[in-house]
Amino acid sequence: MNILLVEDEPKIRQGLRDIISDVIKHNLSLHEASNGKEALDWLRTGGSVDLVITDIRMGEMNGLELLKRIKSLYPELALIVISGHDEFGYAREALRYGVLDYLLKPIERVELATLLNKVKEALREKRGGDAENEQGDDQQEKGRLLIRKVKELVRQSLGQDISLQFLAEHVYLHPKYLSDLFKRETGQNLSEYVTKMRLEKARLLLKDTTLKIADIAEMCGFANHKYFASLFKQHVGQTPSEFRES
Amino acid sequence: MPALPKFISIRTKMLFLLCCLITVPFLLSGMLTYQKYSANMERDARTSSEQIVEQVSINLERYIKEMERITMSLYYDDHVSQILEMHTGAFKDNSYLRSDELFKMSQMISSVIYERTEVEGIFIFALDGSLFSNLQETAKISWKPTDNSWMETARAKDGGLVILPPNDGSYYLEKPRRVISLARLLKDPLTNQVIGYVKVDLTSKGFEKILTSIQITENSKLYIFNEKGETIFPFSGEDKEEIPVNTSEVNTSKMLVSERETSYGGLHIQGIIPKSDLQSEARQLISYTLWISLASLFIAFLASVFTSNRLVKPIRHLHMKMKRVQNGELSERAAVTTNDEIGLLTSGFNVMVSQLDKMIKDVYELTIRDKESELAALQSQINPHFLYNTLESISMAARRDRNEELSQVIASLGRLLQYTVNKQERLIPLQEELEFVDHYVNIQTFRLENRLQVQVQVDLSYESLLVPKLIVQPLIENAIEHGMGNRPLTITLSTKLIEQDLWISAADNGKGMDAETIARIEQSLSRPSIGKEREQGKRQKGFALWNIHRRIHILYGEPYGLYVDRNVKEGATFHIRIPFNWED
């Protein structure tokens, strides 16, 4: 995997390099540039790259300008922005150039790692599976097993409060780590998953039983039945009573 | 301040005033008119009754004189005295009278009373018991002293005229007749010896002719008494009226009395007019006045209700609006309906309120602008590029030294700063708030190491609910600041649904609070403003809690806010109660 890292501060650049090499242990080719111009020049000289990670504020040619150029020259490149600016204007412009994500400094390791994994995954699929995934398999198998366990636990506890803490305690993981792992493995938030499963159960109950809607809401862990109705409508496209009658 | 007098509405006052204005003059003028009028009436009546009584006395005197002349003519008649002298013997019953004597007598008498129809009969009583009269067929020819007690009176008068009250002549053969009589003693003109009595019986006709036509007022009465005080007129007997025997018995306060004695015959004439007769007209006048004033009162009442309504209604309206303004509804304006003082007052009120409104808005906006500019200044001073790049450099340096923990704390610090400074939204998903809490806890854990543990037991479906920004983290901060003792502190953050409201609770197992502290916190939470210390920039203890409570309270109103749990055995527990809100 070829990555171009554009960052004007050497210390930060070095730190990022460390994180990246931690996450991607095999076949990594990392090229560094200290500003946009340098990066672009390197690309023009034929540097082969899959992913560009760039800062926004840099001495010569800022990140946004660089992104713009890259987008027109190499539209298929994956882009990630890392910035200390939490300004909407910047983020919007960056999104317009098709960036994968806009990470805020100081960077959270897990956040960046998740993102990198996603890119890696996407590249692998694009290339149709290489020999390189052999190594990750063992770890990934372990992760999938864990996720399955969590999903089973969620299914069993739909009627009660399901907190991240509760799930994490059962699989002996730190809540934060579990949350990230779940997101990485399944592509959706744990909370979204829980809500989806609850609504799934509600659909079954609505169809198969004649229980009151408020009771069904409660059985599915939605103590506030109006909230339940609103979520149901949002996900199913019908209110619970409409759904039951249809 | 002196106590205000009791509240009396303008309407009542106006009503009272108008009633007074109407009643008092009417009553006064009515009373004066009545008094004056009745006095006049009395005076007029008295004058006219005196005149009438005088007239009556003159007429009566003339009448009596005429009648007396009849007896006088007999008195001086020779034949009469001759015949009577023959009958001066001792009294005996059933005396024999010669027919020529009777005839002569009767002729004599008849000639005297020719054409006098009111004369019932004239009787001459001889001393021996013989009785002569003009009524040959219908009268007895003898008399009895027991039936004729009047003779004593006549004898006492010694030839003078006696007027007798109505009596029933005992000498009529037919049924007794009610008559008034004139009588006198007959004497021989030469010897002056008593030779008999003469009695003239009169029907009431003569008197009636004089008296009955006289009527002073409707219920006025005329009485005539003789010298002895016996009633002559009206005739008693048939209708036993209440006849006052003398004037002293007449109640002068109710009656108007005029009296006169005839100069001849000794008759006493009494005219009595009941005052009620005189007053009846005055009474009528008074009753008219009363009715008119009652009607006016009623009209005045209606008028005052109407006018006071017109007056009071805009005032009430203004008062109501004022109340609303008092309650803080500064957008209220009162409608100006009248073009008078009240209208001026109302428009003045409107101007005042709108100025007040504007001033408050100005001050309010100014404060917000101040805060905004302060924040902007702060933000520009802390150049994000500089700050976050510095943090990032430190983080990377830490990483290079394999200090993952430090790197993570620096990342969290960055998030903390970004979250507090940048996001302007009031309501944010609970998840973001929890992430913020997570970063905060990261930093605190770094500082306190294993003395702090935070458990977040929030249902995953609740994470998308919307909550006011920065309400959870201060609870954790508070728990650490006040709850941290010697042993490790565990803070449990949990959510619950009670009565369809969302309760976010932060419970710790720390030092806890005594009842006094709880009371102080509750008291400070209930205050609408934090006081001067805050303005001076000193962060009062408990300001963070107060701030959470106030913000929730302003956003959602009663009963939402921050509450202290009194029922915990260990540590301290705070509850945030907010509406269950999942959409903007």
TrEMBL record, chain A:
GO terms for biological process: phosphorelay signal transduction system. Keywords: DNA-binding, Phosphoprotein, Transcription, Transcription regulation. One of its GO terms (molecular function) is DNA-binding transcription factor activity. Residues 2-120 form the Response regulatory domain. Residues 148-246 form the HTH araC/xylS-type domain. Signal peptide: none annotated. CDD domains: REC_YesN-like. The modification 4-aspartylphosphate is found at D55. This is YesN/AraC family two-component response regulator. It comes from Paenibacillus endophyticus. The lineage of its organism: Bacteria, Bacillati, Bacillota, Bacilli, Bacillales.
UniProtKB/TrEMBL annotation, chain B:
Its EC number is 2.7.13.3. SUPFAM superfamilies: ATPase domain of HSP90 chaperone/DNA topoisomerase II/histidine kinase, HAMP domain-like. Residues 309-361 form the HAMP domain. The chain crosses the membrane at residues 288-312. Its main location: membrane. GO terms for molecular function: phosphorelay sensor kinase activity. Gene3D superfamilies: 6.10.340.10, Histidine kinase-like ATPase, C-terminal domain (3.30.565.10), PAS domain (3.30.450.20). InterPro entries: Bact_2-comp_sensor_kinase (IPR050640), dCache_1 (IPR033479), HAMP_dom (IPR003660), HATPase_C_sf (IPR036890), HATPase_dom (IPR003594), Sig_transdc_His_kin_internal (IPR010559). It is a multi-pass membrane protein. It is an enzyme of class 2 (transferase). Pfam families: dCache_1 (PF02743), HAMP (PF00672), HATPase_c (PF02518), His_kinase (PF06580). Keywords: Cell membrane, Kinase, Membrane, Phosphoprotein, Transferase, Transmembrane, Transmembrane helix. GO terms for cellular component: plasma membrane. The keyword Nucleotide-binding does not apply. It is found in: Cell membrane. Coiled coil: none annotated. PANTHER family: SENSOR HISTIDINE KINASE YPDA (PTHR34220:SF7). This is Two-component system sensor histidine kinase YesM.
